[in-house]
Each structure stands twice: as structure tokens, then as C-alpha cells.
């Protein structure tokens, strides 16, 4: 009897130990799986944040609406890695999907999680309804023509829609344009109408640029300059050739669609009193004061001058739009031609992504 009872007790204890051991093993495996899943989710979130922080300024021009591309990948460590894909939903709306993975030492998949984020670009929206918009009038002294005819820059045909209807050459709060000298036998200002008197033009035209203010954009500028500056132009380095974004004088390559910097549109902050000499650039140029364009400087995009725009030298031009407190254009120093394509590309190129205010994050699986 004693032997039978002992054997029965040993069997029961053995069963209890086996059950406890199986439960502990299952709990340990569940804990490891939960840890791996948590690490994968953290990797996905980290990948999304890293992508937004390192937003590639070339994305805006490269991606057609509706297209999807893998745009980033990274290893966090200890078998934790992430990849990101981006889908362009509209000109300013993107869906970012970040995939986080946790792998074992042999590379086997332990867990995978995906999160999605909706991002919206916040491009500056200058009130560019003319080639040249001013608050306190325009003074012409033999300057090159100002044209409100919508123009596609040379070599930009592959990235621009057809031109829109012509706008005014000059739009001023009171329609004040004074002309001291003729423009070489041709009209100094052309457009529909050539000069538009618009009482809505005022201080806010230069300070409230759509959802952003001048100060907001100034603080997020990717380039800053001041004083007398010359030699601005595209800078390419490496093999294969890549646009060198580290050069302060690299403001894109508007005249060469084969140059890697053709797609680079910086947001530039210039101190008052800046003088830009020979060179060329593109993007959005913010000037906190007076600006002088000298020596044939060329710019494609939008220039916003919270002061007086002056010109000197020969051969300068702006293709896009200019907004200024006042303009004093003398000699053959500047031709201003409206281009909706240049304005649009500069706006989008200078924009930064921000999460939507509501429901911008979702765990997909």
C-alpha cells in the first residue's frame, strides 16, 4: 500500500511539475514574442520619425501623384531594423508606411509591425497674382520689361503643365508706376492688364504667406546669406554626380535640367542690404529689408522683399514672381517674367512635411 501511494504521489507531482514547466515555457515564449513585437513597433515608429526629420528635398519633384517608392531603410541594432515607403496622394499630401522588424541572430523573423502616418506639406503661399507685386509703387528707369504672361522656363517642359492665362505685369496697392526712361522701344510693363491697382495689397501681403508667416519661414530656411554675395550656382560632387547640399552657394540649377541640382529648391533667408552679384539660383528667397540684384543675377521662383528691391548692372532676370515693399529698377538690370510653374516648384521644394492634426498615425498590423 505504501509503495502504491508513493508511486501515485510521484506521478501526480511529476504531472504538476510538467504542467508548471510547460506553463512557464509558454509564458517565457509569449514574453519574448511580446518583447520582439514591441521592439518591432518601436522600430517602425523610429523609422517614421527619422524619415520626417531627414526629409529629402528632391522628393517633391520626383514623385508623381499616386506613385509609391521605398525611400529609406535603417538598422537600429540587435536585429532591429526598419524600412519606409512613401505614397504621394496629392501635391501636398503623403502616406508614409514604416515597417519595423525584429530578427534573431540567424536572421529569422521574430516579429514585424507596420505603422502609417499622413503627412502634409506646408508650402509658403505668396500672393503672387502678378509678375511684380508692390505696396508703395514701382519706379522704372530704362529697366528691362516686366511681363505677366505665364511662361515655362527653357528646358522645363517635362516638369511643367501648360501655361495659364496672362496676369498683370505690375500689381500695386494704388497702381503707381513711374517711368523715367523708355524700355528700348517696347512697353515696359505687359500683362492683362499691364498695371493692376489693388487696394488689398498691404503689409500682410509680405508677412502672411498662406498658413505660414514670414517669420516662420525665416526660422526654417535651409540657406542664409547677407552682405555682397557672388558666385551662386549649382555644386555637384561625387561619382555618380550628386547635388552637393552642403555648399552655401548652391541654390539649385535652373538652367540645366540634366544637372542633379535641377530638382533642388532651397528656402533662403537674406539679411536686409544683401547684394546678389553674378550667378543663378532657384527656390524661395526671403529678404528682411532691402535687396539689390546686380551683375546679371538670375533667379527662378519667388522673391519676397520686406523693403526696397533695387537693380544694377546688365542682364539680370527673375522668372516666377516678386513681392516687395517698393521696386526701383534702373538701367538694363532686371527683367521680371511671371511663371506659375517656377512659383509652384519653388513652393513645393521649400515645403516641409508636418503630421496632420487629427488621426495622422495608425498601426496597420
Architecture overview:
It is a single chain. The chain is an alpha/beta fold and 365 residues long. Helices cover 21% and strands 38% of the residues. The protein has helices at residues 2-53, 59-62, 203-207, 214-219, 340-349, and strands at residues 68-77, 80-88, 93-103, 109-121, 130-134, 138-141, 146-147, 168-172, 177-179, 189-190, 195-197, 208-209, 212-213, 223-225, 228-229, 236-237, 242-243, 267-271, 274-276, 280-288, 291-293, 298-311, 317-330, 335-338, 353-355, 361-363. The strands form four sheets. The chain has a 16-stranded parallel sheet that branches. Strands 1, 2, 3, 4, 25 and 26 form a six-stranded antiparallel sheet that branches. The protein has a two-stranded antiparallel ribbon with strand order 12-13. A hairpin with a 2-residue loop joins strand 12 and strand 13. The longest helix is centred in the first third of the chain and has 52 residues, at 2-53. It starts with a helix and ends with a strand.
Main beta-sheet annotation: 16 strands, parallel
> What's the overall geometry?
elongated
How much of the sequence lies in strands comes to 35-45%
Overall number of strands? 26
Helix percent band: 10-25%
Output the radius of gyration.
30 Å
Keywords:
365 residues, 21% helix, elongated, 38% strand
Helix and strand arrangement:
Layout: H1 2-53, H2 59-62, E1 68-77, E2 80-88, E3 93-103, E4 109-121, E5 130-134, E6 138-141, E7 146-147, E8 168-172, E9 177-179, E10 189-190, E11 195-197, H3 203-207, E12 208-209, E13 212-213, H4 214-219, E14 223-225, E15 228-229, E16 236-237, E17 242-243, E18 267-271, E19 274-276, E20 280-288, E21 291-293, E22 298-311, E23 317-330, E24 335-338, H5 340-349, E25 353-355, E26 361-363
Parallel strand pairs: 5-8, 5-23, 6-9, 6-23, 7-10, 7-24, 8-11, 14-18, 15-19, 18-20, 19-21, 20-22, 21-22, 22-23, 23-24
Antiparallel strand pairs: 1-2, 2-3, 3-4, 4-25, 4-26, 12-13, 16-17
